[in-house]
TrEMBL record, chains A, B, C, D:
Name of this protein: Copper-sensing transcriptional repressor CsoR
Organism: Tepiditoga spiralis
Highest taxon of source: Bacteria
InterPro entries found in the cross-reference section: Metal_Tscrpt_repr, Metal_Tscrpt_repr_sf
Pfam families: Trns_repr_metal
Ranges annotated as spanning the membrane: none
GO molecular function, one term: DNA binding
Amino acid sequence: MSKKDIINRLRRVEGQVRGLQKMIEEERTCSDILTQLSAVSGALQKIGELTMKEYTKGCIMEYEQNHNEDLLNDLIETISKFKKI
Amino acid sequence: MSKKDIINRLRRVEGQVRGLQKMIEEERTCSDILTQLSAVSGALQKIGELTMKEYTKGCIMEYEQNHNEDLLNDLIETISKFKKI
Amino acid sequence: MSKKDIINRLRRVEGQVRGLQKMIEEERTCSDILTQLSAVSGALQKIGELTMKEYTKGCIMEYEQNHNEDLLNDLIETISKFKKI
Amino acid sequence: MSKKDIINRLRRVEGQVRGLQKMIEEERTCSDILTQLSAVSGALQKIGELTMKEYTKGCIMEYEQNHNEDLLNDLIETISKFKKI
């Protein structure tokens, strides 16, 4: 995972969230606000996917070194956590 | 929907997203990052719920005035859009 | 909502779930099983959407008759329940 | 993953889906139907989680044998597929 890529994605999300505040101030329609909320949610999903990808690779590499069963359990647990994003 | 309440919620989300950027900079674990992403996602869900609530009430009130079938279809469509947040 | 349409959809889902049992018996790959689970989940989502559509129309029609605020609150609550399907 | 456990869970889901057909026949409320749909969806989620757990362990074990990078990519892809259940 390129730190720079993720940080840029998060900056865009931050901008979208500020945009949402402006939309509320301007009393934009609920439909427009829900559309924007979906966009922010989708962007966070993508960041979660990239993070999960990195995490999974890390777990497997580490498991290879030390065969610590806990790593597998952590990975399983994290996959379930990821599902809820 | 209190504009002020929603804007405050969005400000908190904005802070959480900045916090995520800091976590990436500090190379916090993927697990910590996914936990924070879940928190942000949950906060957006809540904002979506409040928006949806307001929208639904508005649709019903307006429908009562003009019995425009389009309002019902818009509401149905928006409920599906809301599901995807 | 055509009762017949929904029941046919549910029959198809029932068949898909039996298919999943067969896949487990035959020790098909987890990847194949997850693909089939996604298909079943998608079919249930669609049934939920059709049910929600019907429900929403019913609420609005009834509200028009008696202006019972509870109907609005039930609708809001049901929209949130629908989101979790 | 105990095949027997998963098959029993799928049999229960099959029963729930038949129950839903009966609910439609009996013209139960949309709210009751959505509640039942949520229950079925939750049961499928759990089956997906158990399948994913098994799959992940399998991938890691196999990766250890042959260090085939494709296994990692398949796992990442399957995690994303799992998210959509």
